User: Fold these one by one.
Assistant:
Number 1:
Amino acid sequence: MSTPAGVVIVGAGMAGFSVASNLRDRGYAGRLVLIGDESWNPYNRPPLSKAFLTGSVQEAELALRPASYYQDKHVEVLTGRKVTAIDRPHHRVALDDDTVFEYEHLVLAVGARNRPLPVPGADLEGVFFLRTLDDAAALRGRLGSVKRAVVIGAGFIGLEFALVARKLGIAVTVIDIANRPMARVLSPAMAAVFVREHAQQGVHFLFETQVMHIVGEDGRVSGVEAVGGELIAADLVVIGIGVQPNVEVAAASDLEIADGIVVDEHLVTSDSDISAVGDCAWHPNRYAGGRRLRLESVQNANDQGRCVAARLMGAPEPYLSVPWFWSDQGSLKLQIAGIATGCDETVLRGASSSPSCSVFCFREGRFVGVEAVNRPADYMTGRRLLESQAPLTPQQAADEAFDLKAYTARHVSPRLNQRSESRTA
């Protein structure tokens, strides 16, 4: 049985919530349905790898809004439900319980899922991923009995977990196939800052190391064997080797797919009545030289949701938000703005031996990104310069006497300054 048409949002994470909340804020009065495959209303993911694991934040505190918000805003939230098919000619989506929703416009905010580790033993008891609230709750329930943990993957999530585990007295080894942590997003100079911080906290790293086998006894994990034969004892393993976008339902409906659901600069798919936002959206990005990519961040989810809502309410603008990211690891707060992948020149401000420094990244002489640790002024300066497209040379960035803040104030309009400040993480 089908229901009256409106805007249907598939995916109740940050991106889906952003679309729904921004539509209501802009005055959309039609039917609004938000469908999620998890059993929770929309919640905040970043604390899952930090404060939630330590117990200082509980499930209820993660909610983006109380349940009453959805009632007051007349947003129909369906949890624990999956969309199994999109009928594009008839503007319908089918759910796993045979419910059918008609839509005037469909928004796919279907996110991504953990990338599996294709080795024997990955399904043993004691092997965890960390992406959803259910993942984090299961992991938290085991930490009290763990003595030795191995983290496979030295990305944000793995490293944040590693320091939480150390605070709990757990011995931690982090394994990664790359030659440094967070290699996809950080320069070597900045990565060295984090290696030092983790080493000081007792984390052991094995870089340029490939996992061959997760070893178990009686169905429970007991260690990790690397290519070459080294065996690292463990009674808990956390796998964090990235994610892959959830594109299967979109692909089955013949939407264009690449490394995600293909969208244009307005986040419209190959069907003009369907948009895609968040981790699943393969979009052209101004800060990557116009090439298409996916971004997995709170900022991207929020801003893409805002962009789609504006378009649906008759105020279309291309998606031009500066990408930014953050990670809290021990005493270090990492903040990144821009897309520095493929940069050919970096400039270090401060000393990498210091817990406060920044790296300005350039590609063919053009400023493309900033990485800052415990140096928020450099981060905000870089972010504002990127948003305004104001020029910055490597020579200017390298000169510690050069007043970046004053230079930015001259080149960035007050409107951009106010907007950046209102969105600071």
Number 2:
Amino acid sequence: MLKRIAAGLLAGAAISASALPVSAQPSPVRWNSGAAVWTTKFSDFNDFLKSKDAYSGERGLSSGLAASGWTAKEVQAGLSKTYNVDVVGVTRYLYSKDGVKFLQDQTRSYFPYWAQKATAVQALRSAIILASVDGKLSSAAIMKNLPVDFRLADTCTTFDGKQNICAKGKCNGEAQCTSLLSWYVFLPACIQANQILDKVTAGRPAAAGAVRGLW
């Protein structure tokens, strides 16, 4: 029964993703500051995650790391860390009323490059669900499964380039509590904590708990 439910939920996520204007090679971040745009591809993030010294020569990612409030090593560890999840529980939450509110809150300044807020909830939800299929969720996996290019918008008027960190009280200082990379570090932990599990899966390692972030 659970397998059939999971298949149906995943099909729904796939349909939602297919309804979006999919990019050939979606870029996790197009840093949009005023009229300027710097694109960071997933390959740039992948190179950073594999780097022994947590270094990136890509301009946008390098700037993002400097503004994250964490050391590059901490961001590298945070983006790579995996969390045990149940894809059915994750999907239930993200399609619930609370889950939709969560997704709306979590796309404050980070959303699809072209459609922007119009498809923000659907696009982020699709990426999280698809990244949860194997029972392991990480920030890097969410990035990899984004259906379209995403932008971090700092347009001086409508958007301020800041994100709402989902783990209240777990960040310290302006940068940690508003930067995109810090937001990504905490996102999978919040999903794990909020997934809606039934009695069968509640006893598994994926059971919801306190948000732990990097620790």
Number 3:
Amino acid sequence: MSKCYAVASGKGGVGKSTLTANLAAALALEGSRVLVIDADIGLRSQDAILSLENRVVYDLIDLAEGDCTLDQAVLPVDSVRGLFLLPAAQFSRARKLDPDRFRKILDSLRQSYDYIFIDCPAGVERGLRNVLNAGVDEEILVATPDDISVRSAERAFQVMDSKKLNRPWLIVNRINADWVRSAGMMSARTVSQVLDLPLLGEIPDDPVVLRAALKHSLFITYDCEARNALMRTASRLAGRSLPFPCYGEKKPSLLRRLFSRPLKEVTPIDDH
């Protein structure tokens, strides 16, 4: 039985969709069978990120309304073996994703994949709530280390908390170590403590990410620091305990390491 994750953010522009695709690809590269579901109805992006925009015929809404089969809607990603996409509708067409139908789709998909990642609409509106009501197992919240993103992430967490779901994991994206050192940017540790959420990953601000996006390719396939960070994140999600590099933070003295409070972290348990 697969593990289903909803990947959300309090606001747009934090790199949620890019991280979702690359995190899924990282697990596929390790031998897992992984599905990405683009649930951002009317604003789909995963087909472009995964270089499948010219192959989409059917989408999630078509599947929910019975206009196609699973085999017709789900597309294999050519560049990463074991990775698949169920795309969102390009236009809302005045149709919404019904949570009950979505739940049935998830139930039918679980036996075919090790991991399912749902790329949620940004923000805290109805689209996010519909996904959370569909019976996901866990949530991942993506934020950047700035006040506005953290405030928005806190609001998204409140929505998740109102659903009585598990406490979401946190991925802090686009960390600039130099800015952290100059006290102009929060560290991943600080964001984790402010939100009081367990840290799953910290991804550095890496120019390779943008270059890969411009080529409609995955940065996980490049030799870069962002790739290394995301591979560590994928390993933690699979149940392995790995240290955090804590980009930009000063290394504490031996006495401080012995007596200071450790970074809040709970190791995910892979139960499939």
Number 4:
Amino acid sequence: MSLDPLLLAGLALLVLLAVLAIRTAMFRTRQVAVRGIDAPDLDPEAPRRLARALQFKTITQRDPSEIDADAYRAYREYLEEAFPKVHDAMDRTEINEHSILYRWEGTDSDSGSVVLAAHYDVVPVDAPDQWDHGPFDGVIEDDFVYGRGALDDKASAIALFESMEMLIAAGYSPRRTVYLAIGHDEEVGGEDGAAAIADYLEQHGVSPSVVIDEGGAITVGAVPDVSEPVALVGVAEKGYLSVEIRADGMGGHSSIPPEQTSIDVVTTAVQRLRDNPLRASLSGVTGETLQFIAPEMGPAGKTAFANLWLLRGLITWALTKDPTTDAAIRTTTAPTILDAGVKDNVVPSTARAVVNFRIRPSESVKDVMDHVRSQLSDLPITLHPQQQGEPTRVSPMNDEWFDLVQRTIREVADGVVVAPFLVPGTTDSRHYASISEHVYRFAPFRLTEDDKHRIHGINERISISCYRTMIAYYMQIVRNADALGDAPGSDGAASEAPEVTAHERSA
């Protein structure tokens, strides 16, 4: 007796739907339940202290001799004036003249240390006349503090000092030693700043339990099918490689051009690399990002990501169609320089292009170079690797230190979804990866689409309410780190801190 094929197909469909439904029902949230806190009252002078810090023209330059050393020095002197308790309680070491490392001795020498990092250099201003207020005026208007560095990264630096000043004023004594690592050249690579600070710590036998730096933020309306803001915590940074592609050939007069010009060769090479990028994948950090976010999606999104065994190919394809999500799942390929020719009637004998790759952690500089060579092996070109750096180590996403960061964010920022993510750019934090397994990149800015354009752009600003949350975040990081009971012979007890109001926040 044979069964009707239509009946078999119907039964198979029912089984498939049942599997999809069961897997979706078992797709549990990765958000921790917390007792939320209300930030301590903000000193009315705190926004004005930030505004004053934004007035110092600590503009970064690739050539260190070109920076305004007086502005950098004045900024550091201002820190001493504005935060006297920090400077009384902490040891202070200048690194390469302009970077600063503060050390707040903990009460338990066996409990490890916490590094809180930021930088105070800022990028130049291209169009100051387009700002509503001067980029270095430090104006407060309508609950916002305006100025270059308000988002990147003076607000983080000053919030660190405000938070420590408040803890010290309340009589708090940290169990773990706390370091404030304030770099001065992050915008040009951090080699003289954060890299030198990390070397100093290593030379003095310091292996921090955790490092907290900039890199992620609270995104508002950026993740489809998730109604809540999403706090993205950077757990790794992409690598970096620029490759010069050069073609040398016969030049000549444009009236009798050769069959193939150097420009033809280089543009063919560039287009071939664009048409054949490295493979996209949902594995690694991005896979974990989805596991944290997808359970908070609506029914359609939750069902899709709960059943990657069936829909992985379709979802990967869909993510490649948007530049932002495509960058999250593959090593990106971006032509950035094209150079050839000096006159409109002369065929140039030489043409060159530079292609920049941002490398995901599962791949390496060598992998990218092998890919480039395989794609362009038949073309008469030469390849010249230029600036390069490997992806950073991936910090753990399923241990107590990531949980601490996640819990702290959810305590101080109401109603946010927290997820790890891969930072597409570079920050100072990569320099600390050699001395700490746990390097997390996050500051609790709330960024809308409009705000994203203000970073390094026009009318950079931060809301006072957001700044208040930042101060609470850094205070709570220190308290939560002290309460983490992993120290030998310690019960995780911490000394008294400024009083906060707690209330339940469920997952």
